[in-house]
Amino acid sequence: MEQTLILIKPDGIQRGSVGSIINRFERKGLKIVGMKMIQMSKELAKEHYAHLVKKPFYPDLEKFMTEHPIVAMVVEGKESVEVVRLIVGPTNATKAPAGTIRGDFSNSTSRNVIHASDSKETAEKEVKRFFSEDELHSYEFANEEYRYAADE
Question: Which residues form the domain of 16?
Answer without folding.
Answer: 2-137
